[in-house]
Amino acid sequence: MAEPPAPAAPQASRTCFWGSQVTGFSDAGPDRAILNIGQRESWELTLAAGCPDVDWAQKIGIRARGGDRICPGRPAELLVPDAGGSGMRRCLVRNVRKLSPEEAAAVRGRSPAK
Predict the structure, then answer these.
(1) What residues make up the domain containing 48?
(2) What are 73-87's pLDDT values in tens digits?
(3) Is residue 3 domain-resident?
């Protein structure tokens, strides 16, 4: 006799953010950047190879491609001013990942909230 199908795993809710919610950013090494959303939330962006470094940038922008919000699994692009300040360089965001509260606290240099 066939066994009943296993129940479907609950889908994790898609967590997203709006580009306008970004309150800060930092360079996280080659082809990575960290975006701060509010006081406690941080997201790691994995960038396409060859993207401009964001460590020297005074400001950046992020734009969703094919939607309004930036979400894991959806294409986005990082906008970094070029060295001359006359325009923006576009960089494909390959992956978006929300950091855990502990990871977010670590990148912000403080203890996680209890």
Answers:
(1) 19-108
(2) 998 999 988 877 678
(3) no
